[in-house]
Amino acid sequence: MTNRTYREVRLAARPTGPVTDDLFEIVEVPVPEPGPGQVLVRNTHMGLGAVMRSLMDEHNDVPIPSYEVGAPLHGHAIGEVVAAPGTDLNPGDLVEHQLGWREYALLDAAAATRLDPDLMPDPAAYLSQGSTALMGIERGAEVRPGDTVFVTGAAGGVGTLAGQVARQFGATRVIGSTGSQQKADRLIKELGYDAVVVRGAGPIEEQLREAAPDGIDAVFDNVGGEQLEAALALANRNARVAIVGALASQLSQDGTTVKVEVDSLSLLVRSITLRGIALYNHLDLIPQWNRRFAAGLRDGTLTFPHARLQGIEQAPRALRELTEGRHLGAVVVEL
After folding, report:
1. Is the pLDDT assigned to residue 252 strictly greater than 70?
2. 118 to each of 93, 94, 129, 305, how far by Cα in Å?
3. Share of the chain above pLDDT 70, in %
4. What 8-state DSSP symbol labels residue 112?
5. Nearest-angstrom CA–CA distance, 128 and 46
6. What is the mean pLDDT of residues 151-173?
7. Counting beta carbons within 10 angstroms of the beta carbon of residue 284, is it exposed (0 to 12), middle (13 to 18) or buried (19 or more)?
8. Which of 190, 192, 185 lies closest to 167, judged by CA?
C-alpha cells in the first residue's frame, strides 16, 4: 500500500477577511500503513460548518484546536475501514471521525466510531448537524406544544433541521431568518416555515413584529447581533432563548465580534431564560438524533436539505460558498 498516494487539503495561509480559495493547497502524499491499534479509513464524505472559518484563525473562542498553517485541516467525516490491525474494527466497516479534508485518514481506533450502514437511507445523513438542532430545540429553547418559535440562520445546516424539529415538538408557528428572499421563499415552500425575515430587507425587529404579532415563546439563535436583539425585544413572558451559534461574529467581514445589547431589567421582569448551549456537553444526543433522523427520512416526516460537491478538490470552494451563504442546508463533499 505504501506505493499509493492520496490527496489532502492543507491551510496555506491564515485569512485576513473572507474565505478565499488561495488559503488552501491540495497536496498528494503516500497512503500510510496502520500500526497496532490504528485504523486506516478511506473517507467517502466530509461535512463542513461555519465554525471552520473560526478555526482558520490562529486563536479562536471555540473548544476545538485551530488549524495549523502547512497542515491538513480537520472536521467531521465518514468512511470505510481499509485496515485496522489489533482492533475490533474490520475492513469495510463504516465509521465516523474528525479527520476530514483528506481522502484517507490514519487515526487511533478509539477515535473512530462504528456506524450502522443500514440505518440511514443515505450515509451522508450521518454528517447532518441535526444533533445540534435537537439539542437547541429540546434542551436549550425547551420548545413546547403551542409555541411560536424563531430560528435565526434558518437556511443553514442547523437551521433547516431546527425548524423541522421544532414542529415535531409541537410548535404551532415557526419563523426563520435568512439572507435572501430566494432562501426565504424556499424555507416557506419546502421546509414548512410559516414566515421568514430577511437580513437587509429592513429592520429585523420590524419584520419580526409583523411575522410574530403575538410575540415569541422560544428562540433558537444561530446568529447573535441584531437578530438576537430583535428576538429578545419580542420575547413573551417565560420565553426560553437558546444561543447555539454566533454566525454574525464568525462570518463578519473584518473578523470583529458582533456585540448584543441586553436590557437585563426587561429580561428579569419577563422571566426570560437566556441559555448558551453547546453540543460537546450533550453528546448523548448524537445517537438519539441518528435514530430520529433515520426514521424521519424513511417515513418522509424529515428531510435533509444539503448541497453535495464532488471531489476533494472542491472542498475549498465548498467552505467558501458556505461562508458566503450560497447554499441551503448542510454542505457535504463526496470524496
Report:
1. no
2. 11, 10, 20, 20
3. 96
4. -
5. 10
6. 98
7. exposed
8. 192
Reported pTM: 0.93
The residues near 122 (Cβ < 8 Å, ≥ 6 apart) are 297, 304
Say if residue 213's pLDDT is above 70: yes
Angle of helix 204-211 relative to helix 225-234, nearest 10 degrees? 40
| Residue 242 Cα to chain centre, angstroms | 15
Q: Sign of dihedral through CA atoms 200, 203, 205, 207?
A: negative
**Would you list the DSSP string of 12-80?**
-S--SSS--GGGEEEEEEEPPPP-TTEEEEEEEEEEE-THHHHHTSSS-SSSSPPP-BTSB--B-EEEE
109 grid coordinates: 481506533
Grid cell, residue 259, equals 456585540
* Helix spans in 153-308 (H): 159-168, 181-191, 204-211, 225-234, 247-250, 264-269, 285-299
Neighbours of 180 (CB within 10 A): 17
Scan for cell 466497516, then name that residue: 93
Q: What is the DSSP letter of 259?
A: P
Which amino acid would we find at residue 50?
A
Supply the pLDDT for residue 142: 98
**pLDDT tens profile 46-57:** 999 999 999 999
Question: Whole-number mean pLDDT of the chain?
Answer: 95
Using CA of residue 60, residue 63, residue 69, residue 75, what is the dihedral sign? negative
Amino acid at 299: D
